[in-house]
Structures are given as C-alpha cells and as structure tokens.
C-alpha cells in the first residue's frame, strides 16, 4: 500500500506539548542518577544539554519513524520536534547545575560544615535569614549522611523551595526579557550565526515523501563522523564497566612534563584533549573566532612564563604576584563584550525606548522592558528582604546581567557552549570596594548567590539556551509566543520536578557519597571565602582592578579593529573565552583542530569542499552526544561510577 505523503501541520499540536512535558519528567529524574549518583556523564555542563539532545535524537531516529510507519500524520513535524528541543535545552541546565544541584546544598552547607575551628557560627550564622533553608540539625545531617529510609522531610523544606523557586524564576524571567529585547538586533541587524542550532535543524528536517528519516541521516560522511565517537566512547565506556578491557586515552593529556625547567615550570595547567563534539562545533565557527581562542589561550600561557621570568610569581612578586591576573582580564573582557553589544544596539534600544512613550507603538520588546523591570525589582526586593543593602543589590544584578549578556553573545556568535567563565560577580565586588565596605551581612547573602555565579555553565547558561530556542522557531516558522510559553512552562515544570527528584536522590544516598563537585565542593566554597573575607578584611585591590581594566581595554580595542578592518584576524570573543577558568584548558586544542580542518577545506577546496565536509563534523557532534546519552542509559542499572565522556 502506498504511504501518505509527508505531513507538516501548520500548527503545533497538543502531542508536541505532551512530548515536551514527558521528556522534562524523564530528564529531571534521569539527570539526578547520572550526575549525582554515578558521576556520569556531564549531561548538562556542556551545552546544548546532552540529556535534552539525546531525547530529541531518540524522537527523531526511533519514535518518529515508528509513528510515521503506522501513519505519516502521527509523527512529530520538524516544528514540533524543535519545540520539544527548545524546551529540553532550557530544562537540561535547570534540573542540574543551572537550578538545583548547587542551590540545595548551599542552603545548609554553612551549618553542616560549621566547626569550632572555622567559627562559622560566630562569624556569619546570625546574618542568614531563617527562611533561607532548614535549620534542624537532623534534617541537615540526613541530607549529607542519608535518611536511612525516612525519606525527605518536606515539611521543613517546602517554604525554602517555594521562595528560592520564585527567585530563580525571576532570574529566568530576567534572561527571557533581555533575550526578547536583544533578539532583533542580534538576529536581524548583526546577523549572528548561532552555530549550535545547525545540527538540530539538519537532523529534524522533514523526510522525503514515502520516507521515514531525513536526507541528513542518509549521508555517508555524517555516519563516518558519527562512527568515530561511537568507537571511541564504545571502547572507553566498556573499559569503565570492565576494567580489563582496553581503553583509548583521548583527554587530559598533560603537557607540563615537557616544561619542567624554570621559568617554563610556571606554565600552569596545560593539557590537550580530542573531544569530537568540540572539534565539530569548531569547524562551524568562523576561522577568526576559533583561531583567536587558541591563540589567546597560548598567549596567556606565555604571560605566565614571562611573569615567572620577571620574578612576579609567589610572595616575592608583591602586588604582581598573581600576574597575569587571568580571571581579572577575563572579567574585564566579559564586561566589555556586554557593553560593546549594548553600544552597537543603541539605535535599536532607542527605538524601544520611544515605543514605550506611545502605547500605539508598543511591541514585544516594549513588554519585555516591563518584564525586565519587574524581574529586576523582584530580585532586588527579595535581596533587601534578606538583608542586602540596596546599592549592593542593584550593582550585583546589573553586573550579573552584563555577564549573562556576554555569555549569551559568545554562545550565539561563537558556539562556545562549555565556557566556565572568569572571576565571579562577588569577586569583582570585593576587588572593587573591598570586603570591609561590603560588611558581613551583604557578604553572607552574596555567598548564597554563588550557586548562580560560580559556574557560567549553570544558571547563566539558561539565557543563551532560551535565545537559541527563539532562533530555531524563526527558522521553521514557530510563532515566538509559543516558544516563550513553552520555555516558561518548561522552566516551572522542570524546576518543580528537579526539587523533588534531587532531594529524593540526596536523602536516599546521602550527599557525602554523591558527586563531590555538585553537592560538597561548590556549595561549600563560598562560605570558605566568606570566612577569609570576614577574618581578614580586604581593602580594594587596585592592581586586580587594573587588570580588569586591561581586559576591558583589550576587548574594546579588538572590537574596534574588527569593525574597522575586515582582514583583522583576532576576535574579542576569542580573547574573552581564553581568559576564563577550567574549561578552556580542556577545549582549546580541539577548537584549534577544528580551525585547522576548516582552514584546509577552504584553502584547498573552497566553500564547496567546506559544505561537503560539514556532515562529517556534524556527525562528530551527533555521535558524541548520542554516546553520552547511551552510557547514561546503561548507568541507570548501576550505582557505581559510570562513564564520563566530557570533560
């Protein structure tokens, strides 16, 4: 019997919303087991969300072909699948480090880790509001040591969960408003490339008449690229569960043994890795961006060696002992990227401002301004109720917003979905005014906000995820209001599910045997810093702030030169990404490899060769993310450490 032709419904049918909710439920509970219990894989600390992406892979390669085989109209259309994907890449971080993993332990860490030696109780316990989290010693102990079958004491958690959920939803609302305000400028006027949306667009294309899958999945080059991470992670994942099985070393290959003589021994962390998805993403980027990331990373290493040669290392270095002030330079670069973005959008922002004065000219950006003001007012008011001074709250959330704008710009223009970020907003405040000026009450509340500033792959990653969803909607004709509604619903549902799933998991196992970074290290770190700031008050660090200025000046100069001279090879985003913490050490080399492959393709074959090879590199990404999800599924049957494909 002849099959019906491919069906592309003009509207989003209820089944798409149902699929989005079901996938959100699945990811909320799956993430807790994979990231907390078996420490594998980092579903949501690389973006787009591996868990969300895997769900869409299953929909595209398994569910949809079966449904279309029964009746073509039963399958999800490209619009509907991308709506699900747009929700998943937002829900992914929310159910992980972008919502609950750092937050929940932060609320009780200052009490659990308090000892007579560290004097937490005397130094700052009195400044923690009673409504921030449970104070019952048994509840706190069971959080870290297990409840022994007694379950979660919800009656002691519900108030804090509601209040902090409102706080987080206001943060997500702030992001959403900023995205709506900046979208037209970045998409229509500057025409930013959004590298991370290319693969979901390709893989969700409508199949030809009488077909079950799109042409993308019939491309031999794509499957060749897919096979590389399939074999790599297949072998290494098997080794994780069967230690006698061989493995392939492809990450964290240290180069420091080759730099053992002074001053080269001060080069710091210096390693290479071969992450297939990062190579694939880098191939999509412009050569200027990928080259600049690698160049400026190596330049930062040169600065470290130069500082050692000049005697600026350690205590003998005096005020320059932290040279080259990598994270301070990065902080200045992030601020400059955000400010430069707003300056370039000044005409667009003035148009929005004029529309506010004339109700007949109101548009979606006008309502977004109302949402922005409302979200900011709520966050500032919430902070005031907690005891933060008005000026501290305003400055904190303005800088926080600028950092989020910079991160979003870097991701939608350069596809950098694994950027850790520079120094935190709290560090920048202490650098600029000193801990003495801020005082113990402000510092105590700001320490609780570390859960959303200490790792840019967490809460801040929600903003670029939202904007990528908007861009996908435009490509396939989904009304933006539907995407906004879907993202809002996904955020509320995902956060509620995550609270339930995370607390059930933590109280069942006990936080002390779960993932150290998420449950113990990151939540405790801000209170260790707080103790130092209160015990040894700091004045403003003018040398550190000088390098914040250096980073901002270099970024603005690079931005000007990029606008003035088309041939200028160095991109400000490359500089900002290189001067961040942790993740850049892992990804600089695969970014450089992707740059080299693209350069060779363009140099020897031109745009045609580049396009012919593109499916191969998209296959690298798809295979990496598929195998990450695959080993996550395998790990559901185990409570032992599983396979960590990234980092």
How would you portray this structure in words?
The chain is an all-alpha fold and 647 residues long. It has one domain. The protein contains 24 helices and 2 strands. The protein has helices at residues 14-37, 50-70, 78-94, 103-106, 109-112, 120-124, 137-145, 154-189, 198-203, 220-241, 276-284, 287-309, 326-344, 346-356, 364-386, 390-414, 425-433, 435-448, 462-476, 480-509, 516-535, 542-564, 572-578, 583-635; strands spanning 253-254, 271-272. Strands 1-2 form a two-stranded antiparallel ribbon. Helix 3 (78-94) packs antiparallel against helix 19, helix 8 (154-189) packs across helix 19 and helix 13 (326-344) packs across helix 22 (542-564). The protein is globular. Mean pLDDT is 90; it is low at 1-7.
The geometry reads as globular
Largest sheet: 2 strands, antiparallel
Helix percent reads 55-70%
Q: Kindly state the mean pLDDT as a whole number?
A: 90
Q: What portion of the residues fall into strands of 2 or more residues?
A: under 5%
Q: Total domains, how many?
A: 1
What is the first-to-last residue Cα distance?
49 Å
Structural class per helix/strand content?
A: mainly alpha
- SSE string, helices as H and strands as E: HHHHHHHHHHEEHHHHHHHHHHHHHH
Count of extended strands: 2
Read across the widest sheet, the strand sequence of neighbours is 1-2
Helix segment count?
24
State the low-pLDDT regions, or none. 1-7
Radius of gyration computed on alpha carbons: 24 Å
């Amino acid at each position: 019997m002849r099959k019906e032709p491919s069906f592309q419904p003009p509207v989003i049918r209820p089944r798409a919303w149902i699929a989005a909710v079901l996938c959100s439920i699945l990811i909320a509970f799956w993430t807790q087991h994979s990231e907390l219990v078996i420490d594998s894989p980092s579903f949501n600390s690389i973006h787009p969300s591996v868990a969300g992406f895997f769900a869409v892979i299953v929909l595209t390669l398994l569910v949809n072909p079966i449904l279309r085989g029964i009746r073509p109209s039963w399958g999800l259309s490209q619009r509907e699948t991308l709506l699900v994907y747009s929700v998943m890449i937002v829900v992914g971080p929310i159910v992980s480090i972008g919502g609950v993993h750092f937050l929940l332990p932060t609320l009780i860490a200052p009490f659990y880790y308090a000892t007579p030696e560290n004097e937490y109780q005397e130094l700052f316990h009195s400044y923690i509001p009673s409504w921030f989290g449970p104070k019952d010693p048994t509840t706190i102990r069971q959080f870290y040591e297990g409840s022994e079958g007694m379950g979660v004491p919800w009656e002691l958690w519900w108030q804090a969960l509601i209040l902090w959920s409102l706080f987080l939803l206001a943060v997500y609302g702030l992001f959403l408003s900023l995205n709506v305000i900046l979208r037209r400028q970045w998409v229509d006027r500057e025409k930013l490339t959004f590298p991370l949306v290319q693969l979901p667009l390709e893989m969700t294309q409508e199949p030809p008449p009488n077909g079950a899958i799109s042409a993308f999945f019939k491309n031999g080059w794509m499957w060749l690229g897919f096979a590389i991470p399939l074999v790599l992670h297949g072998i290494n994942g098997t080794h994780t569960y069967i230690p006698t099985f061989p493995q392939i070393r492809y990450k964290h290959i240290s180069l420091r043994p080759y730099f053992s003589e002074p001053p080269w021994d001060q080069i710091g962390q210096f390693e290479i890795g071969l992450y297939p998805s990062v190579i694939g993403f880098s191939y999509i980027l412009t050569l200027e961006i990928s080259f600049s990331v690698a160049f400026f990373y190596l330049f930062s290493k040169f600065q470290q060696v130069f500082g050692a040669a000049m005697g600026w290392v350690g205590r003998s270095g005096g005020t320059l002992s932290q040279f080259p002030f990598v994270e301070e330079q990065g902080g200045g670069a992030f601020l400059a990227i955000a400010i430069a973005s707003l300056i370039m959008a000044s005409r667009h922002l003035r148009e929005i401002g004029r529309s506010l004065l004339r109700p007949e000219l109101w548009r979606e950006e006008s309502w977004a301004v109302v949402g922005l003001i409302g979200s900011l007012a709520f966050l500032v008011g919430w902070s005031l109720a907690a005891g933060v001074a008005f000026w501290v709250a305003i400055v904190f959330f303005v800088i926080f917003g600028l950092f989020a704008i910079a991160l979003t710009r870097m991701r939608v223009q350069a596809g950098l979905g694994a950027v850790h970020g520079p120094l935190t907003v709290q560090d920048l405040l202490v650098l600029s005014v000193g801990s003495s000026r801020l005082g113990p009450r402000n510092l105590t509340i700001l320490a609780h906000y570390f859960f959303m500033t200490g790792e840019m792959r967490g809460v801040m990653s929600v903003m670029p995820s939202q904007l990528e969803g908007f861009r996908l909607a435009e490509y396939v004709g989904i009304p933006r209001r539907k995407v906004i509604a879907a993202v809002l619903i996904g955020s509320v549902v995902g956060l509620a599910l995550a609270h339930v799933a995370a607390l059930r998991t933590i109280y069942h196992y006990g936080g002390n045997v779960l993932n150290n970074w998420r449950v113990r290290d990151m939540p405790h770190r801000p209170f260790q810093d707080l103790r130092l700031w209160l015990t040894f008050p700091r004045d403003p660090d003018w040398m550190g702030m000088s390098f914040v200025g250096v980073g901002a000046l270099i970024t603005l100069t690079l931005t000007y030169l990029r606008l003035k001279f088309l041939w200028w090879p160095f991109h400000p985003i490359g500089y900002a990404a290189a001067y961040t913490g942790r993740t850049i050490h892992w990804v600089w080399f695969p970014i450089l490899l992707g740059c080299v492959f693209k350069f060779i393709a363009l140099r020897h074959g031109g745009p045609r060769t580049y396009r012919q090879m593109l499916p191969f590199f998209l296959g690298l990404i798809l295979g990496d993310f598929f195998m990450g999800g695959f080993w996550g599924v395998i790990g559901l049957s185990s409570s032992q450490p599983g396979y960590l494909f990234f980092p």
